Amino acid sequence: MQNQYLTLDGISKxxxxxxxxxxxxxxxxxxxxxxxxxxxGCGKSTLLRMIAGxxxxxAGTVVLEGADVTELPANRRPTNMMFQSYALFPHLNVxxxxxxxxxxxxxxxAEIESRxxxxxxxxxxxxxxxxxxxxxxxxxxxxVALARALVKRPKVLLLDEPLGALDKNLRIETQHELMRxxxxxxxxxxxxxxxQHEAMTVSSRIAIMQxxxxxxxxxxxxxxxxxxxxxxxxxLGEANMFDVDTAQREGDRVRLTLTGLEGQFAAKxxxxxxxxxxLWLSVRPERxxxxxxxxxxxxxxxxISYTGAQRHYRVRISNGAIVDALKVNTGDSQGFERGDAxxxxxxxxxxxxxxx
Length: 356
Ligand SMILES: Nc1ncnc2c1ncn2[C@@H]1O[C@H](COP(=O)(O)OP(=O)(O)OP(=O)(O)O)[C@@H](O)[C@H]1O
Fold this sequence. Notes:
The chain is of the alpha+beta class. It has two domains: 4-225, Rossmann fold, CATH 3.40.50; 238-355, CATH 2.40.50.140. The protein is 24% helix and 36% strand. The protein contains eight helices and 20 strands. The strands form four sheets. The chain has a six-stranded mixed beta sheet with strand order 6-7-8-3-9-10, with helices on both faces. A five-stranded antiparallel beta sheet has the order 13-12-11-14-20, with no helix packed on it. Helix 2 (94-104) packs across helix 3 (109-122) and helix 2 (94-104) runs parallel beside helix 4 (138-150). The longest helix has 18 residues, at 168-185. The relative contact order is 0.11. Bound molecules: adenosine-5'-triphosphate (ATP). Belongs to the ABC transporter superfamily. Spermidine/putrescine importer (TC 3.A.1.11.1) family. Residues 6-236 form the ABC transporter domain. Its EC number is 7.6.2.11. InterPro entries: AAA+_ATPase, ABC_SmlMolc_Importer, ABC_transporter-like_ATP-bd, ABC_transporter-like_CS, Mo/tungstate-bd_C_term_dom, P-loop_NTPase, PotA-like, Transp-assoc_OB_typ2.
C-alpha cells in the first residue's frame, strides 16, 4: 500500500446501546480510490460521516496526514463530502451552486470566480453555468454536485452512494468519469456503496463491511479471488459452496471430504485465516469446468440460461445439490443441452476453504 495518509484507529460509534460502527481500524493511502462496501445498515455511512467530521466517534481516533482530527469540526478538516444531486439549490444557477461553499468561507470574489471556472472546465460544465438545476439532465446535475465538492479543494473527497440516483448506463459512464478525475486531480476518494460491481470497477481497494465491522480489505482482485469467508464470497458475486465433512490441514492447503460426494478434494486456505465451525469448499461459477467424461463429479444439466455474453448452466450433481457454471459465449460451440450427462470439476487453485 501507499504511505499511510488517513488512519482510522479503533473507531466506534454507538447510538445508545446500539453499536453502528464497531472498532474499525483502517489505513488509507494518499491517492487511493477506496470503497466501503456492505449491505444497508452495516455502518458505512456512519463511518464516512466520522471521517468527514459530521459525527464524533464514541471511541478511537481519525488521523489525517499525521494530525489527529477526531475532534475537529467538518468545516475545519481537509475533507469534503459530495452530496447527492438532489441537494443542489433549485433557485440558484449552476455557477452559484458551485460557488456557494466558497462564499460561505468568505473568499474574495475574484478567487471564487477563478475557482468556479477552473472546476467547470475540468467537469465540462462551462456551457451550463447559467442554467438552473431543473434545466439539467441527471448526469449533468451529478457533475454539478461533484463540482460543488471539488471547488473547495479537499485533500480527501468523500462520496456517499454518489451514483445511486443514476440509471445503469449513466452510472457506468459516471464511474469512469470519477476514476478519470480522481487520477487527474491526484486526490484521495472514499466512496460508500452497496453495489459490488461499482466497488470493483472504481476502487484501488475495498473494505467489505457487515454489522459495523470490516471483514476484509484488499484490492478488487484479492477480495474476489481470495475471500476470507462465505459471507464475503457471496457478497462479491456468485460462488458454489460444497458442504465439508472432514478437513485436514497440510500447510496452506487442506484435504477435504465433501457431504454426499465420493473421494478426496483439496482447497486453499485464505491467507491469515483458519476457518472454524461449519466449513465450505467454494468455487466461482466461471472456474467450474464442464466435460462429457473423465474425472469429476457426475451430474446432469438441469437448466440453461443464455444472457448473450454468457451461458449459465445449472447442474444437478450426484449428491442432489445444484452447481452453477458460467461459460463465455465464444460463438463456436453449441455447449450442452438440458438433460445431458456431464462431469463437473475445477482446477485445484480455484477452490477455497471458507467458514461462515
Ligand atoms: N443518528 C442515529 N441514531 C440512531 N441510530 C443510527 C443513527 N444513524 C445511524 N443509525 C443506525 O446505525 C446503523 C448504520 O447506519 P448507516 O447509515 O451507517 O448504514 P449504511 O451501511 O450506510 O446503510 P445504508 O446503505 O442503508 O445507508 C443503522 O442501523 C442505522 O439505523
